[in-house]
Amino acid sequence: MGSPTSKIPEVGLPKMYRLPTKELQNIFEREPELLAQFTEIIPSIEKPALDAIAVTVGPGLQPALWVGVNFARALSLVWDIPLIGSNHLEGHLISPLLTPLGKESRVSASFPAVGLIVSGGHTELVHMEGWGNYMVLGRTRDDAAGEAFDKVARILGLPYPGGSALATLAAFAAANTENFPLMLPRPMIHSGDYDFSFSGLKTAVLYATRERPELLSREPLRAALAHEFEEAVVDVLIAKTKKALEHTAARSLIVGGGVAANTKLRAALSMLAEESGIPLLLPLSEYTGDNAAMIAAAGYLHANEPSAADLEAHGTLSL
Q1: Count of domains forming the chain
Q2: Are residues 174 and 114 in the same domain?
């Protein structure tokens, strides 16, 4: 006998909505927990004046992706609005073009370009011939930069999310840290490729605090350790990005992702772009982390493609 939550109640749904019951039944059989939310939200709002609905299809955690994909599929069916699958990474790349509603775009990209995605789940360098035309030059082999920030912040006893908390602590480090008794590694900075690795850097911080407990107990040393870690991450990101710029004849540098909010990284990227004689495209701080606007923008890039009512989630999707 089927679960009551898997049935599609037709009572309460506005008649102006097309209700493809069979298709919705299939969707909610896979995600029955969405049924209550769906039937609650639909009667309370009018059909929006939208040209399309964009939804993240990957990369990411597969179960979470499916929740969004299935809900968007249901909305697309009921409202009879085209559905577009967006790549989360492409959303980060286009985020520097986003501006608050009603304001004109601040920047424009020149191609070919180098894209740096630096977030909690991804760290990648991308050669961009244009929007939608990408070649990944290198990516992290283990932890992403943002993930390393969060893990080191936890070691230092800082709250989550760790990136901003660690940067705040690092800012309290003494102006002169030359006498700090620890030099952290710059992983793969001379590897000759465009790949990254931040897991070992996190481990180096962990071992250092175990061998020298005063790094945690004395606030000036804790701040200096946070500063040294931040410097190490930024040094690697800048070195790899500089190498990519030099070998691709890039005409602009495009950066996205949560770590792009880091003040030290933004300053270093600005200096690199100035030295390279190319424009730097950085997102506004409110668009550095994951946000719906960047997914909509990524969907807009593919607005002329056929609607995909049978979208599927792809946890390991790449550019």
Answers
A1: 2
A2: yes
For residues 179 and 181, what is the distance between their CA atoms, to the nearest angstrom? 6
Q: Is the pTM of this model over 0.85?
A: yes
Q: What is the pLDDT of residues 83-117, one digit of tens each?
A: 999 999 999 999 999 998 777 777 789 999 999 99
Tell whether 8 and 120 lie within a shared domain: no
Residues 143 and 224 in one domain: yes
pLDDT of residue 5: 40
Report yes or no on 269 lying in a domain.
yes
> Do 69 and 21 fall within a single domain?
yes
pLDDT of residue 311: 87
Domain containing 62 equals 4-91+293-300
Q: Do 201 and 134 lie in a common domain?
A: yes
pLDDT, one tens digit per residue, over 213-226 is 999 999 999 999 99
Confirm whether 35 is domain-assigned: yes
Among 61-70, 119-128, 196-205, the range scoring the smallest mean pLDDT is 61-70
Domain identity same for 80 and 131: no
